Amino acid sequence: FFFSPACLGIQLFGSLAGLPCPVAGKESWNYVKVRDGAHMFWWLYYADSPSAEFKDLPLVMWLQGGPGGSGSGFGNFAEIGPLDTDLKTRKTSWVQAASVLFVDNPVGTGFSYTETPDGYATNVAMVASDMLVLLKQFFTEKSEFQNIPFYIFSESYGGKMAAMISLELTKAIAQETVKCNFAGVALGDSWISPLDSVLTWGPYLYFTSLLDDVGLADVSNAAKDVEMAVEQQQFEKATELWSVVETVVEQNTNGVNFYNILTQDPDIKVSEKHVINIHRHVKPLHRQSLSQLMNGPIREKLGIIPKNVTWGGQAEEVFSNMAGDFMKPVVDVVDQLLSAGVNVTVYNGQLDLIVDTMGQELWVKRLKWEGLPGFSKMKWTALYDPSSPGVTGAFYKTYRNFAFYWILKAGHMIPSDQGPMALQMLKMITQQL
Ligand SMILES: *[C@@H]1O[C@H](CO)[C@@H](O)[C@H](O)[C@H]1NC(C)=O
Ligand SMILES: *[C@@H]1O[C@H](CO)[C@@H](O)[C@H](O)[C@H]1NC(C)=O
């Protein structure tokens, strides 16, 4: 442990934007070189609970979506980290119940960076092999975490990466190349079967009064084009057509918010008519205020970010390099995890459009997992919202090594929309409740 120069500055000249300096045993961060010229950034918060030592609580790695969205920025400050984007204490931070590790992946995301244009990952297998390099290094450097139950939680495209990473990690542990106590993976509003998501956008919006018959026909026709491209294995084309469907949805819904159908962002106008908009899913995670925070006081606090690296500066390249992989499903990977005995949880927000619950139900019902008939026959259990006594906050069902959580009144970013419910879910999945 050492004080970064920026932190010495804070020590000498008082606090910088109220940011505490790293205290040994509280937080830690570093880069790992995962390939030549390719560097990945991680940021760890040790669990901070009044009733338990960090050694008695699990370790959770959080993976953001996009690809290109930053866990160290968005997940940390907008969802589950100890401070919110105003640097005020978050009451529902996951750090109360677990040590939390944010990793900016794939390479080029957040503070991670590549020195050369060919350093980006182009498929999820490469994303997983980069992450395995990072995890091997992390558990060597932080050997106190080797025996602590390790969970991977994820959101959106992060779930697709989490599934593949979990599979590779399971193999690496069996081969003893990574030392850790892997306990399970949780796939939040995850891009596991992109086509199932796109094909259910129309029906979901129709049944929630956001499309009329004419709009439903428009959206369904556009979605069929994506289906055809996927069937013909034209995945790059499918990604372009996916973006076209989004435009058709926006035009027919007066700009519904893909991340939560009940909130509308007045700053986002339905103006770009035919733009193939890969920015749509990377931009909301890089709002100007977050960018200023990360590229201002946070990078100063961290003290190890190279001068020519900008947080979010390579995000769009991360996405475009993955365009050929984006629409490929990883349902078979989830099946492999289940048959390998890995604990898998799917959780989804009721108000999420981009990865709507209807689409998740579809691919789950197609799993080859032998426990599926048993799971399907079970009734779900209601959970009360910890912040509103007597109000249903979620439903869940768990059977053998698979669980599903239906989170009510939450969109795509579940911990931002329903913080107390998300924290309770974290505790349940990590066997603290
Ligand atoms: C930053 O500058 C150094 C030195 O000029 C160079 O080696 C490195 O590749 C640059 N990094 C990026 C991400 O451009
Ligand atoms: C998976 O979850 C069950 C509880 O549902 C638990 O008994 C088991 O230990 C978990 N497996 C691992 C590898 O943590």
Automatic annotation (TrEMBL):
The EC designation for this entry is 3.4.16.-
What are the GO BP annotations of this UniProt entry? proteolysis
- What is the residue range of the signal peptide feature? 1-18
The top EC class, named as a word, is hydrolase
Does the UniProt entry include the keyword Hydrolase?
yes
Keywords of this entry: Carboxypeptidase, Glycoprotein, Hydrolase, Protease, Secreted, Signal
A Pfam family it matches: Peptidase_S10
The record's listing under InterPro entries reads: AB_hydrolase_fold, Peptidase_S10, Ser_caboxypep_ser_AS
Gene3D superfamilies annotated for this entry? alpha/beta hydrolase
Give the family per the record: Belongs to the peptidase S10 family.
Its function?
Answer: May be involved in vascular wall and kidney homeostasis.
For this entry, the protein name equals Carboxypeptidase
Name the gene.
scpep1
